[in-house]
Amino acid sequence: MAWLLSLNCSLPVDPPSSLQQSQPRKLIDTSLSSKYHPPPPPPTPPPRSSSSYGNGSLNNNLKPIVLYGDPPTFVSAPARRIVAVGDLHGDLYKARSALEIAGVLSSDGQDSWIGGETVLVQLGDILDRGEDEIAILSLLRSLDFQAKANGGAVFQVNGNHETMNVEGDFRYVDSGAFDECSDFLEHLEEYQYKWEEAFVSWIDASERRKEERKMSRSYWGPWNLVKRQKGVIARSVLLRPGGPLASELARHAVVLKINDWVFCHGGLLPHHVSYGIERMNREVSEWMRGLTDTDSHSGLPFIATRGYDSVVWNRLYSRDVSDLYEYQIDQIESILEETLEAVGGRAMVVGHTPQPMGANCKFNCSIWRIDVGMSSGVLDSRPEVLEIRDNEARVIRSKRGRFTELQVSDYT
């Protein structure tokens, strides 16, 4: 993309000589809204590909949602409410709770979309540390079909645990998740390998399979090693590059820009923008679909998926700044502002790093950190979601069965 700027960023090891004479930092804005207003974005280049979601039946006056890129990279969603959900890590119960809080999932157990024309974004790390990974992916896919019919949409971005599993790194896989892979492979066979039908129906079938699995534990007791090997093989078949589940993940980006908001798992940096967001998304997708040379490092897009400063691993914007020097905090804020200006964004929303104090924003609310570690395999915390309306953001969580809006000042 010709309009993307070539930028470089680094944090100096030693403080600058002018540290003692540095200017005081400006105060952090603690209002509900994100106040950072970057310069107008450069013109969007002609899309490599695009598609539209219909208006649905709720509001015929709304313009359709338009997607640019494959997988979607830039999304125009005029006048839509946006809700963002952080890391889920295989916890279906917490996932459903978060989606109910977001106002997009029915609470009657029918898994119905009630979000109307809302746009839902999930920020990755659905895999690992929990046993219902494929069920969550299936639920989101089902909701996407329903949302499209109502003028809304469901998007996901891949996180580091998605890329790790496609690489064959199963270190953080829950034992129940290996079982789910075995069960799902059998389910897929029952559907004669018709992927769409089998995948969308799994959210309903998975509960029945889990019950059957519990009843058969006495049978499997002496054969746990064999059972585990079966699960590892099933997971490898599903998630290897070109495998059916890896190809499903390949439908999703690692960086997504919806209107003026940037969504990614770890964090976007200037050199990522210079490399090309659409290019990164395309290369990760091709790798997951098995279309690149997996026998060489060139098959895996390093800038997006590996290294501490890659898009899915970067924690620069999510770390606790209380242990940093003033000049380091200024450097981080400068890098963030430079990135947002380059991509033409108002603010960035990230997951990846659990926030024990809850979802929060920093740097004049130009970065929102929404991984609250809700999965029982992480912090087992109360679900929280981010809502964006008219370019203003707020955090919503459940409290004693009711929904509560949180003041940004509670967390900054």
TrEMBL record:
SUPFAM superfamilies: Metallo-dependent phosphatases. Signal peptide: none annotated. Residues 81-354 form the Calcineurin-like phosphoesterase domain. InterPro entries: Calcineurin-like_PHP, Metallo-depent_PP-like, MPP_Shelphs. Residues 11-55 are annotated as: Disordered. Pfam families: Metallophos (PF00149). Residues 37-48 have a biased composition (Pro residues). This is Calcineurin-like phosphoesterase domain-containing protein.
